[in-house]
Amino acid sequence: MNKELLLKVDSGINFSVNTQLKEQLKWLIGLGEIRPGDMLPSANQLADALGLNRNTVNLVYTQLRDEGLLKMQKGRGTQVMDNAKVEHLQHARKPLEQLVTQMMDVAEKQGIPLVDLFISGLAYTLLHPSEKEEVPRIVLIECQGHDHSFYRQEIERVTASQVETLFLEELPQEGEAALDVLEQANVIITTLNHAEEVRHRMSHYEKKLYVIGATIELSSLLDMAKLKPDSEVGFVCLGKTGGQWMASGVQEAGITQIHAHAVGMKDQEQLHELLERADKVYASPAVYEDLQALNPDKVALYPMVLEKSSESLLRMIIENEVD
């Protein structure tokens, strides 16, 4: 993509920088200024252009990927998807563009600052809520190495609510300013992998933290148990820590006759070495499609499932929040 993206952020607006950037990108995609198949600037390039932290841009790209609008591939870049979700966004934004443009024209003629118009409009909307059932704001905290998209999708499936992912690496350290996304959340969820660390890092928020877990389907464990003794078996996730969690789950199930190797998708050199020497490679749902394309004969899906107790917990949470 050669054309320059006319994006900007304004620290004086009472919306988080990542929200400003995310919503501008959705407008550009919705209006066709950025087309399906276009490559977005790298996180470093966009961060430098806007004077932002690279992690902020990565968070926005990840959120838009989770919404089905972008595809992120290590070493290839970030690309706008060509799918039904992008098409739906384009159809939805056309009438909105006409309405917003009309409002802007009227406001400018009357000398009303546009930022004041839209912020006050949001506040006025909140004062006059619709009769629709209020949907709780759910935030999932996970690390970038685990299959966070699996957990987000499972939470959305059970609760029928939209979930925002916040990475553990982005939680503020002691003494740093609190994050708006956590302050505004009704429900904060993390996984067993990071429960203690998240509890410690969030102690000053005075909000209840819910913990969920996942396991592997029994049928897949039975297949692994049939592997020949001393088989070289790889476990690949977004990061090495995720692969280690996958391997430990197999070991805890009593499957100890194999030699397990954990690798992160971003570790390209180790990944290619693993694909060459391993007898079998299991990939988490987040990386399965890309990894399977590299070696369809060796790669199999590591089918994660939400624990039954965690599903019950999520149903209880949503019932209490809605009531």
Summarize the structure.
The chain is of the alpha/beta class and 323 residues long. The chain has helices at 17-30, 43-50, 54-66, 84-109, 114-127, 148-159, 180-183, 195-201, 218-225, 240-252, 268-277, 285-294, 308-322; strands at residues 39-40, 70-73, 77-80, 138-142, 163-167, 187-191, 209-212, 214-216, 232-237, 259-264, 280-283, 299-301, 304-306.
What is this structure's SSE topology?
Blueprint: H1 17-30, E1 39-40, H2 43-50, H3 54-66, E2 70-73, E3 77-80, H4 84-109, H5 114-127, E4 138-142, H6 148-159, E5 163-167, H7 180-183, E6 187-191, H8 195-201, E7 209-212, E8 214-216, H9 218-225, E9 232-237, H10 240-252, E10 259-264, H11 268-277, E11 280-283, H12 285-294, E12 299-301, E13 304-306, H13 308-322
Parallel strand pairs: 4-5, 4-6, 6-7, 9-10, 9-11, 11-12
Antiparallel strand pairs: 1-3, 2-3, 8-13
Helix pairs in contact: 1-3, 1-4, 2-3
InterPro entries: Tscrpt_reg_HTH_GntR, WH-like_DNA-bd_sf, WH_DNA-bd_sf
Organism: Paenibacillus aquistagni
Pfam families: GntR
